[in-house]
Amino acid sequence: MLLWIAVVIAVLWLLGLLGNIGGGLIHLLLVIAVVVLIFHFIRGRSRA
């Protein structure tokens, strides 16, 4: 589920970047997506 959230946030970031909308919010979305992805990979490895 975290992976899907990160993908959605990254897509919204890309659309905002291409549409030139949002300013700093666009970069905040990218940072959130990266943090969620890192959290997903760390959490996934601990289960194995």
Automatic annotation (TrEMBL):
Residues annotated as transmembrane: 6-39
Keywords, in A-Z order: Membrane, Transmembrane, Transmembrane helix
Keyword Membrane: yes
UniProt KW Transmembrane keyword: yes
InterPro entries: Lmo0937-like (IPR043727)
Family annotation (NCBIfam families): lmo0937_fam_TM (NF033488)
Record protein name field: Lmo0937 family membrane protein
Species of the source: Arthrobacter oryzae
